[in-house]
Amino acid sequence: MTGTPSSALVLRVCALAVAIVFFQIGVVSEVPVFGVNADLTPLLVAFVGLLGGATLGAACGFAVGLLVDLTLLQTLGVTSLVFTLVGYWAGRLRELRDPQAALTPLLVGAAGAATALVGYSTMEFLLGVDAPVSLELLRQIVLGIVVDTLVAVPMWAVVRRTLEGALPEDPRRRRRRRAYTTGGLSPLSKA
Amino acid sequence: MLALLVVLSLLLLTAYFGESSGGGLHGVQRTFLSVVSPIQDGANKALKPVRDLFGWFGDTFHAKGQRDELRKQIDKLRPELIAAQAEKRNYQQLLALYHLNQLGVSAYHPVPATVVGKSPTFWYSTVTIDKGSPDGVRVNDPVVNGEGLVGKVVAVESDGAQVDLITDSSMGVSARIGTSNATGIVQPKVGDPNDLLLQYLPANTKVNKGEYVVTSGTVSGSGDSLYPSGLLIGQVISENEESAYTSVNVRPIANLHNLDVVEVLTAPANGTASGLKSLIASLPPGQNQETTAQGEQLASTGAGG
Q1: Residue spans per domain, chain A
Q2: Spelled out in words, what is the top-level CATH class assigned to the domain B105-281?
Q3: A 133-162 residues with CB below 8 A of B?
Q4: Are A77 and B11 in contact (CB under 8 A)?
Q5: Does the beta carbon of A41 lie under 8 angstroms from any beta carbon of chain B?
Q6: B76-123: per-residue pLDDT in tens?
Q7: Of A4, A28, A55, A62, which to mutate for an interface test with B (greatest number of B Cβ within 10 Å)?
Q8: For A7-190, CATH number?
Q9: Where are the beta strands (DSSP E) in B33-160?
Q10: B215-249 pLDDT, tens digit each
């Protein structure tokens, strides 16, 4: 999907983003798993990009990042920048490769979480946060990626189910499906 | 699009980072927070059951983890506790021995020894100690602990010795009640190896329950007593009526079932028997009564002392 997203899709993404951000802040952030908290927001951005393409992914990433920064009184722009890159990367992955493997959501979720965690930490260090790079920090990042990967599959199901009806059909995917069912030949060519 | 968003993010970041806390972007952030705070509160309240549910799972796992951790700590601390209790018991016994030494036993060259073996059978009241002939331990040496007389050495090796307890059927100790001159022989009670019988007291001897029975340290007849005078043996628990002599039931003072540290009195009793007079004098009042019995001394070293 490279064109402009429909308003229905944008609305659904916005609603989902607000719901997920508040659910993250109100519930998920208060339930530690293995000593860390899962972060649903980078997963949301990555999956929106994977389903809607690079433009929608990047825009969603920027908006979600801004919402997070505003709500949590963080430095404006940091999360937006990181999430924009995550959403854009996921969208480009879909546009260029269109992976169909069953493990794709898991791998995209893990990569998105890793990018977000590492990117956010890097940005904070660049901004001069007075914290040493310690083994504990690395452990937290690795555990965070693991936990996010674990929740990637249900998160993928939620995002896909929410956006399913509003996503325009991809012509390339339609071509590929037809090629699969007809053995690569057009029905006209048989006649 | 990407470039636009990235630039926008960087602009936001730079502006926010560069301004003071009272700046415009900070103000926008505060305004936004004041707007969403009620929503956030409402969402928090609405989502509380969900949070509690997740929290319950988390707490359960955490509690299980804590339980396992505490079990490990208990497993780790249990041997330490047992060792500490054993050390405490040893310390108390050594302290009692020290007090005994202060009361005059030190004149008998006591050799501290640890009980390393106990007779497992009911019929043989013997223990094995870790001190032997190189330490000066000899056959017939009296053995005491902090509470009183325990027994005597019956066999000596280079690395240990065997001790017959006063409840062993082969034992006999010349003894007297309190500080009186009424003496008799303490022997194990037939049919009750845990109790003793002080026999051959003169018929007119008045004995009160609770009186202490101590070694007499004196003999008439074949030889000297093996035991120093005044070593505590037990307490009178009842009196038996007999025709010619009086006999009383005696409960040993020393806990013979729980011996860990003892002392072997290696110096001969001759000439130092009066050393324990202070021990008798130290007994609690009321139970150290003088008896009026003045009978002939029947005690002998017969079966050992």
Answers
A1: 7-190
A2: mainly beta
A3: none
A4: yes
A5: no
A6: 998 898 888 888 888 887 887 777 776 667 778 889 898 888 776 666
A7: A62
A8: 1.10.1760.20
A9: 110-118, 126-129, 142-145, 148-156
A10: 887 544 444 567 887 888 888 888 876 667 788 88
